[in-house]
Amino acid sequence: MIPISDSIRLRHQPIISYWLIGINIGIFLWQLKLEVSGELGGFINSWGLIPAQITSAFTNAIDVNPAAWVVVFWRLPALFLGMFIHGSFSQILGNLLFLWVFGKTVENVIGHGRFLGLYVVAGMLTGIAQIILEPSLRIPLIGANGAIAAILGAYLCKYPQVKIDTILPLLIVYIPIQIPAYLYLFWWFIQQLFYGIGSLNIPPSGVNSASLAPWAQLLALLIGAAFMRFNQPSR
């Protein structure tokens, strides 16, 4: 299923959604340049979120060497920066398509500032959840999956029954249909299985292109729904 648009009329231009889409595309184009030059592996392993590095430094800082707190704080920006790095064409296309279809409507409901806050905070919180869930993981976690899942959760909280214009690929035939928004809750988890398609060449350790465990994704959806529930403008 490929979501195209909804029928909700926008009152304001979704400038934050535009900027986030542009930034993600720009960084991905930079990644393609780094892949050609053989520098992509070092870039992602430096700026992607690697749970084992943070948990190891955190443990050392508490139990052995207080100076290790420097390493902890040095690695924390990866919680933010990793959201803007993607490991495959399918991952960035899927994330940005969901951001375009669902993000612009959520931004119009809660406002530009709150929308940006939801995107960033939800993405970082789901990164923290992934560290807790897989503290020994040494593969970089990258992608905006957590942030986009929160946007989807916010949308479904407000508009679960809205029909989404959708294209259903059937072999070489593309069928236009309308699907209730709540069905994309299930499709979101299914499409994560395809995010390895068109993966970039990222040596030496590989990359977790799905970015987040299912439980962390569920947390992101709940964060988005709760945020929408308590931040809707009163009528």
Q: Spell out the helices and strands N to C.
A: EHHHHHHHHEEHH
Distance between the termini: 34 Å
- Low-confidence stretches are none
Rough outline: globular
Mean pLDDT: 83
Number of helices: 10
Approximate strand percentage:
5-15%
How are the strands ordered across the major sheet?
1-2-3
Largest sheet: 3 strands, antiparallel
Keywords:
235 residues; single chain; 9% strand
Structure overview:
- This protein has a 3-stranded antiparallel β-sheet.
- Strand 2 (163-170) and strand 3 (173-180) form a beta hairpin.
- It has helices spanning 15-37, 40-47, 51-63, 69-75, 78-81, 89-110, 112-133, 145-158, 183-191, 214-231; strands spanning 2-6, 163-170, 173-180.
- The chain is built from 10 helices and 3 strands, in the order E-H-H-H-H-H-H-H-H-E-E-H-H.
- 60% of the residues lie in helices and 9% in strands.
- The model has no long low-confidence stretch (mean pLDDT 83).
- 39% of the residues are buried.
- The longest helix is centred in the first third of the chain and has 23 residues, at 15-37.
- Helix 1 (15-37) runs antiparallel to helix 6, helix 6 packs across helix 7 and helix 8 (145-158) crosses helix 10 (214-231).
- The chain is globular.
- It is mostly helical and 235 residues long.
